[in-house]
C-alpha cells in the first residue's frame, strides 16, 4: 500500500528500509548499501525476466561496468540532452611534486579535486549505452541483447526511489523499424504481466525523458506526442506514481550515431525496455511488507526465494 505523501513519506520509507536491513545509508542521498534479502529479490527478478524470453529467440546476454569511454558517450547525445544528470571520472596523473601540491591544497582546506584531470571515462546513465558501439557497421540480422549494468544519474534526493547509483536490466533490440516497435511493445506487456503476477498494481502511460533546456522541452513534447516512450507506474506514495520500468523506441538515432546499418544499407532502428531493479524491489517491499520471508507463497515461488 502507498506509504503517504510529501517529503515525510519519503523519509519514512527510507527509515523502514534501513530498519529492515534492506538499505544502508552512505551519507550521500541516492547511494546505498543493500542487504542479502534485497539482493535475493533482485536476483529473482532477473531470473523472471529471462524466463519471459521467447524460446526460439537468440539472445545475447551482456554484463557491463558502470563506465563507458567518453567518445562513445558523446555519440549517444546524452550530454546535449541531459547535462544535469551527467557524471565524469577524473583522476590523478601527476608525479611526486604534483602529489605534494595536491596534499598542500587538501591540508589547507582547498579544493584538491581541481588538481585532477579527466580520465576519458564517463559514468553510464543507461545500460543500453554500452551495447550500441559493439554493433557498429553492417548488421547481418537483427540482434537481441539482455544487458545488465550499474547506472549513474546525478539527481540526489531523500526519496529512496530516486537513486544516484542503481541497476537497470534492459532488453535491447537493433534491427528493422517494425522489429524495434514490436520489441518495445512486447516487453512493456511482459513487464505489466510480471508485475501483476507479483501482486503489484501497475498502469502504463506515455512519458518523456527529462530533456534539458528550452530545446529539450521541445524534444520532450515530440517524444510524448509520438508515443516513443512508455512507463510502467505503480503506487509507492499517495501523491505521485513512480515508474519502475520503461520502454523506448529510438528510431534510427543510435543507428545513425554509431553507424549501424542493415544489409540493404539503411540505418538500423533500435528500441529498449528496462526495469529499474532497485525500484521494482522496493515496490514489492512496500506491497508485501519488509519481511521477505512472509511474502505470499506464489510471489516467493515466482522469484525463487
Average residue-wise pLDDT: 91
CATH class of the largest domain: Alpha Beta
Strand content: 25-35%
Query: What is the helix fraction of residues, given as a range?
Result: 25-40%
Cα-to-Cα separation, first versus last residue: 22 Å
User: What's the CATH H-level homologous superfamily of the largest domain?
Assistant: Bira Bifunctional Protein, Domain 2
Order of strands, main sheet, comes to 3-8-9-14-12-11-10
Structural class: alpha+beta
Task: Summarize the structure in words.
The protein has 305 residues and is of the alpha+beta class. The chain folds into two domains: 7-86 and 125-303, BirA Bifunctional Protein, domain 2 (2-Layer Sandwich), CATH 3.30.930.10; 94-122, no CATH class. Helix content is 36%, strand content 26%. The protein is built from ten helices and 14 strands. It has helices at residues 6-19, 36-51, 70-75, 78-81, 96-107, 177-197, 213-225, 253-257, 277-288, 297-303, and strands spanning 23-25, 32-34, 60-64, 67-69, 88-91, 117-123, 137-138, 143-152, 165-175, 202-206, 229-234, 242-251, 260-261, 269-276. The strands form four sheets. A seven-stranded mixed β-sheet has the order 3-8-9-14-12-11-10. A three-stranded antiparallel β-sheet has the order 4-6-5. α2 (36-51) crosses α9. It is flat, with a radius of gyration of 21 Å. Residues 218-226 have low confidence and may be disordered. InterPro entries: aa-tRNA-synth_II/BPL/LPL. This is Aminoacyl-transfer RNA synthetases class-II family profile domain-containing protein. It comes from Luteococcus japonicus.
Amino acid at each position: 500500500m502507498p506509504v503517504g505523501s510529501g517529503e515525510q513519506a519519503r523519509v519514512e520509507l527510507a527509515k523502514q528500509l534501513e530498519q529492515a536491513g534492506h538499505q544502508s545509508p552512505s551519507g550521500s542521498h541516492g547511494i546505498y548499501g543493500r542487504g542479502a534479502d534485497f539482493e535475493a529479490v533482485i536476483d529473482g527478478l532477473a531470473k523472471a525476466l529471462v524466463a519471459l524470453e521467447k524460446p526460439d529467440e537468440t539472445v545475447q546476454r551482456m554484463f557491463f561496468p558502470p563506465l563507458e569511454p567518453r567518445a562513445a558517450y558523446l555519440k549517444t547525445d546524452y550530454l546535449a540532452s541531459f547535462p544535469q544528470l551527467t557524471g565524469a571520472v577524473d583522476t590523478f596523473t601527476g608525479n611526486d611534486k604534483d602529489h605534494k601540491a595536491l596534499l598542500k591544497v587538501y591540508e589547507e582546506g582547498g579544493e584538491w579535486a581541481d588538481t585532477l584531470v579527466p580520465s576519458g571515462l564517463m559514468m553510464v546513465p543507461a545500460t543500453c549505452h554500452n551495447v550500441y558501439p559493439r554493433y557498429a557497421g553492417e548488421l547481418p540480422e537483427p540482434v537481441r541483447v539482455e544487458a545488465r549494468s550499474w547506472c549513474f544519474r546525478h539527481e540526489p534526493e531523500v526519496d529512496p526511489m530516486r537513486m544516484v547509483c542503481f541497476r537497470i536490466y534492459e532488453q535491447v533490440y537493433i534491427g528493422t523499424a517494425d522489429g524495434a516497435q514490436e520489441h518495445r511493445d512486447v516487453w512493456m506487456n511482459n513487464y505489466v504481466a510480471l508485475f501483476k503476477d507479483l501482486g503489484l498494481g501497475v498502469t502504463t502511460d506515455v512519458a518523456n525523458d527529462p530533456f534539458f533546456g528550452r530545446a529539450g522541452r521541445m524534444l520532450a513534447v515530440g517524444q510524448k506526442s509520438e508515443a516513443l516512450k512508455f512507463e510502467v507506474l505503480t503506487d509507492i506514495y499517495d501523491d505521485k506514481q513512480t515508474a519502475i520500468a520503461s520502454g523506448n523506441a529510438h528510431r534510427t538515432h543510435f543507428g545513425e550515431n554509431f553507424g549501424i546499418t542493415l544489409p540493404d544499407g539503411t540505418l538500423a532502428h533500435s528500441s529498449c525496455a528496462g526495469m529499474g531493479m532497485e525500484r521494482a524491489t522496493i515496490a514489492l517491499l512496500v506491497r508485501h511488507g519488509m519481511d521477505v520471508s512472509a511474502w505470499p507463497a506464489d510471489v516467493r515461488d515466482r522469484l525463487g526465494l
